[in-house]
Amino acid sequence: MRQLAGTQAGRAYLRSEVEGELQAIFSRSQATAEAYGPHFSRLWNLASRRVRGGKFVRPLLLLETYDALRRSADSIPNSRSTSQPRGAHARSEVVRIAAAVEALHFAFLLHDDVIDGDFFRRGRPNLIGELAEASRDEARPGGARHWAQTGGILSGNLLLSCAHQVFARAKLPAELKLRLLDVLEHTVFETTAGEFIDVGLSDGVFSADLGTVLEMTGRKTASYTFELPLRAAVILADGSRALENKLSAAGLHLGLAYQLQDDLNSTFGDASVHGKDLYSDLREGKQTAIICFARMSGSWPLIESDFGNPDMSIEAAKYLSDCLRDCGAEDFVRGLIREQVEAFSLVLCAPDSEESVPRTVQDVLFGLLARIDGRQS
Fold first, then answer.
1. Which residues are CB-contacts of 280 (< 8 A; sequence separation ≥ 6)?
2. pLDDT for residue 86
3. Phi and psi at residue 125, to the nearest 5°
4. In the chain, what is the straight-line distance between the N-terminal and C-terminal CA atoms, in Å?
5. What is the pLDDT of residue 83?
6. What is the CATH number of the domain that holds 274?
7. Is residue 77 part of a domain?
8. How far apart are CA 55 and CA 50, in angstroms?
9. Residue 76's pLDDT is what?
10. Total domain count, the chain
11. What are 170-188's pLDDT values in tens digits?
């Protein structure tokens, strides 16, 4: 893999490793699912197919960072630096953890879709939407929706359990396994708290100030999308806690930039490219940094009347989007993204740090930043 590191072919190979492990994870429980009848077996198969159809941002980040740490260690004979990995573990265990991270991601997606009442993702029915469509003729009025959302909650629960099982059964030294489990527990708490705050903001329970919105974003998105894979990679490569903490800090800044860009795409982007329902954030009343800025502008009275209206027309939503752009909200959030990118770069390259990030890892993360910067989907 060394000659393919960081290339499109290299990422395709890593993706195939994760897909194979996910297939193995679901196959091991297939007989158990079948024992509970055809409907439950179909739910398990549907979840399996959906998990394996994602972008794999998180497991690929874990594997690329782990491989970069291993290359760095191999290039420094007899190195005693505390930031350098000390040993190696079976590749299969690393891939299995990476697959579990993707299962965790899909569990969060399922629960998020239920909370938001979403039946589509990237222009196609999501798991909940597919279940609802399949049961529409048999169920009582309203029953298909309730049954499908129940399936989403229960599938998410199963995948959360699956991720914990993989982490707990990893063939690793006890100290490393406990570190991994601590990171997993922290991630679940952080993401759950972030989702709770997100809904509280949208429902008006919490004050929608910029600090609260950014705190929510860090917990809901950055924690499990970037911090978890980076911290897990360091642990699996026997890296120091100091290096783990440093990459965790870098992951927070990268995650905030990633989500802020996602907010821009949803409000100002092309739905045929980013795949979300057109202007869904405006219809759902999502309290983003865009909206925080708009509240302080003279354009807010023009936006407030329709913001959060689930029945808002495309024309009205387009008008809101134009108002948000004209009042400076788009430029403001682009400035926030630049701030996070600068902070991210500083963490990675600070010359006075006791724990320098290996150049191989810097290459991985700056390469990821280049793919994220200005992304449309």
1. 118, 266
2. 45
3. -55, 135
4. 28
5. 45
6. 1.10.600.10
7. no
8. 11
9. 58
10. 2
11. 999 999 999 999 999 999 9
Q: Output the pTM of the full model.
A: 0.90
The token pair at 359 is 């150049």
Domain that holds residue 43: 1-53+90-171
pLDDT computed for residue 215 by the predictor: 93
Distances (CA, A) of 363 to 59, 143, 296, 348: 17, 51, 39, 10
pLDDT at residue 374 greater than cutoff 70: no
The CA distance from 343 to 356, in Å, is 15
Identify whether residues 339 and 222 lie together within a single domain: yes
- Other beta carbons within 10 Å of 261: 20
Q: pLDDT (tens digit, 9 = 90+) per residue, 193-212?
A: 999 999 999 888 988 899 99
Residue 6: pLDDT band (50, 70, 90) is low
H, E, C per residue of the chain: CHHHCCCHHHHHHHHHHHHHHHHHHHHHCHHHHHCCCHHHHHHHHHHHHHHCCCCCHHHHHHHHHHHHHHHHHHCCCCCCCCCCCCCCCCHHHHHHHHHHHHHHHHHHHHHHHHHHCCCEECCEECHHHHHHHHHCCCCCCCHHHHHHHHHHHHHHHHHHHHHHHHHHHCCCCHHHHHHHHHHHHHHHHHHHHHHHHHHHHHCCCCCCCHHHHHHHHHHHHHHHHHHHHHHHHHHHCCCCHHHHHHHHHHHHHHHHHHHHHHHHHHHHCCHHHHCCCCCHHHHHCCCCHHHHHHHCCCCHHHHHCCCCCCCCCHHHHHHHHHHHHHCCHHHHHHHHHHHHHHHHHHHHHCCCCCCCCCHHHHHHHHHHHHHHCCCCC
Compute the CA torsion angle 369, 53, 230, 227 (nearest 10 deg): 80
Q: Which two tokens stand for residue 95?
A: 């891939």
Give the amino acid at 43.
L
Residues 194, 111: one domain?
no
